[in-house]
Every structure is written in C-alpha cells, then in structure tokens.
C-alpha cells in the first residue's frame, strides 16, 4: 500500500471535520485512509502548538528577538558600507580624481 502524504492544510481540515461534525475517530480515519494513531498524533501536535498561538509572551518575545536580529544585520551592513566608501575615497585619491 502506497504511503499517503498530507499537507498541513489537509491535516487541519481533517481534524476540524472531526471536531465540528462530531465524526467518530474510526469513521474519519476510514474516510481519509489514515491510521488512528496518526490521527491522534496530528491532534496532539495541533493542540500543543495552539498554546504558542495564544501566548502573548511568546509573540512579544518573538518580536523582540526579530528586532534584535534585524538591528544586528543593519549594523553589519552599515559597517560594510562605511568600509566600501573609505576604500572608494582612497582609490579616487590615489588615481587623482578628487
């Protein structure tokens, strides 16, 4: 039997159908040809991930981390630009263009 791969969207659709329509696990698994253990694993992953979604601390920390990384990249970029400008001025002075 060929192993089927489900996209994250398909997994959510299957679990949503189970929750909203109150379909039994055996019926939903039969309909989508999945093993019940697999279904329960998807459901567990969904609810474990939901905590992060609803956690305000997580989203603020993520934003602060992202800002810090972007500031560091900007600082590095500015240093490279300054070095290139200095090198450009030096080369122009040596060639007598200035």
- The helical percent reads over 70%
Spans with pLDDT under 50 lasting ≥5 residues?
Answer: none
Count of DSSP-assigned helices: 4
Please give the alpha-carbon distance between the first and last residues: 76 Å
The CATH topology assignment of the largest domain is: Arc Repressor Mutant, subunit A
H-E order: HHHH
Assembly context of the chains: single chain
Structural class: mainly alpha
Could you name the CATH class of the largest domain? Mainly Alpha
Strand content: under 5%
User: What would you report as the Rg, rounded to the nearest angstrom?
Assistant: 27 Å
Return the CATH architecture of the largest domain. Answer: Orthogonal Bundle
Give the overall pLDDT as a whole number. Answer: 88
> How many structurally independent domains?
2
Shape: elongated
Task: Tell me what you see in this structure.
The chain is an all-alpha fold and 98 residues long. The protein folds into two domains: 1-54, Arc Repressor Mutant, subunit A; 56-98. The protein contains four helices and no strands. It has helices at 8-21, 25-32, 36-54, 56-95. The radius of gyration is 27 Å and the shape is elongated. The N and C termini lie far apart (76 Å).
